[in-house]
Amino acid sequence: MKEIQASKNPLIKELRKLHQKKHREEQGRYLLEGFHLVEEAARWGETLELILVTQRGLREWGSWLARQGEESLYQVSDEVMRSLSDLPTPQGIMAVVSKKTQIITDFSGRWLLLDRVQDPGNVGTMVRTADAAGFAGVALGTGCADPYSTKVLRSMQGSNFHLPLVNVQLEQLIPQLQQLSIPVYGTELNVDAKPFQEVKVTADVALLMGNEGQGVAKDLLNITDFNLYIPIYGKAESLNVGVAAGILMYHFAGSL
Amino acid sequence: MKEIQASKNPLIKELRKLHQKKHREEQGRYLLEGFHLVEEAARWGETLELILVTQRGLREWGSWLARQGEESLYQVSDEVMRSLSDLPTPQGIMAVVSKKTQIITDFSGRWLLLDRVQDPGNVGTMVRTADAAGFAGVALGTGCADPYSTKVLRSMQGSNFHLPLVNVQLEQLIPQLQQLSIPVYGTELNVDAKPFQEVKVTADVALLMGNEGQGVAKDLLNITDFNLYIPIYGKAESLNVGVAAGILMYHFAGSL
To answer: Which portions of this protein are annotated as coiled-coil regions (chains A, B) (predicted)?
Structure first.
């Protein structure tokens, strides 16, 4: 096992850059923090290029670490860990995970489509809920929070290892799905849209959720099969987008 | 209109204490920030003891402010506003609102009961969703995030002005509801509980959601009519509590 004491070590400096999307794309990898997520990544067959652990972490997770490849393991100082973590109290374990290039050719089943969902917590919660609801995958359009940022990763709680996340051009994907006879439903805050409770549950479906403030882009709403609406029975103006996605995904969840 | 320039002004020092729950309870009032929330409070008949506004805010919301009581209006410096706000960029308007003592004797309709929900964003989102789903009110047990904290207030987006929020002892409220023949359903991550889709929708119902990590306390789960479960169809371990509450509330929402 190698050791790194100094946060100005060239490898550590390189890894710190992974907090920026540009560098995650250039290096093709991302940082994952905390034992639960690192263990989940390993369990689901992700490639852990490096595992960085503090002395305290080595004691705590020693038996699990002993089963990982010796050559990928680095013991680091608390200073190094703090310099890499964006948590106020780092847990003491972090992995560098290779980004998978996911090419999806089969869009059968239920898919969640996200149009410019910007809040990392919202993107993460929706991926986690999609997983719980048995959705086949999540397609992220341009302008969504990057699922490989540490905030989104924390909020997904490992669901990104359970189902595919793909970056797409929604204006191209939607017509493709429709050619495959997969219905695509947009969502809008408009009482002229169809109340979701009236929509038949089908084995294949694509559900399109939009930006926190602006909703789904008009251009996309215009090309869906039709658009859904969650009725507001009280005096609230709207629902949180993560909650709305949960209500709709569970409408389509389960067996027919 | 009075003016306050210095953040060490005795009134401002007193108001700053309202960031602590203890002082909100002692003073019987709380801080509310941002034009949208302040306007919503006034519209729904809340008592705005004071309105603090910066010079820029005066220009922006002048016509609305002119319709409020002159004697409650204070023009404050940017320094004073910054000292009171917990936002990185204060909006320039803040109100001091009297806490209402809400004594609820009628628990008919649909109620959301919260057991030790600690995250301010979760409490706020659930109140907002309860409002959207047409619930009659939200009962907060001991150990919940204080709904008068600025974070919860932001996240409720004004729904606290639309429906009553009451502090309760859940172990006392639950038997009272049951004596009134109102069914009380707990929620748990337990496949032995009843899948929510199988539960009949009734006009009166109390739905009990629990702490983020620990769920609903065992003592409470033992005294409910029965407990509900949201089936997990994928590989996620659980749902975010705010999302789970949304799925369940919308199951019970709307007309019979």
So the answer is: none
pLDDT at position B226 is 95
For residue B238, name the pLDDT band (cuts at 50, 70, 90).
very high
Residue contact B236–A159, C-beta within 8 A:
yes
pLDDT given for residue B184 in this prediction: 98
Distance (Å) from the alpha carbon of B129 to chain A's nearest alpha carbon: 6
Give me the residue from B130, B158, B235 closest to A162, CB to CB. B235
pLDDT > 80? residue A256? no
User: Which residue is listed with tokens 């993560």?
Assistant: A242
Residue numbers in B near A138 (CB within 8 A): none
Cross-chain Cβ contact A132/B253 below 8 Å: no
Subunit contact A243:B243, Cβ cutoff 8 A: yes
Substitution target in B247, B251, B256 with the highest count of A β-carbons within 10 Å is B247
Question: Domains in chain B, start-ordered, CATH in brackets?
Answer: 2-98 (3.30.1330.30), 110-252 (3.40.1280.10)
Q: Are strands A205-209 and B194-195 parallel, antiparallel or unpaired?
A: unpaired
Best of B163, B240, B249, B255 to disrupt the A interface (most A CBs within 10 Å) is B240
Distance CA A111, CA A204 (A): 8
* Each residue's pLDDT tens digit, B63-112: 999 999 888 999 999 999 999 999 999 999 999 999 988 888 899 999 99
Per-residue model confidence as pLDDT tens digits over A73-130 = 999 999 999 999 999 999 999 999 999 888 888 999 999 999 999 999 999 999 999 9
Query: Of A172, A168, A173, nearest to A147 (Cα)?
Result: A168
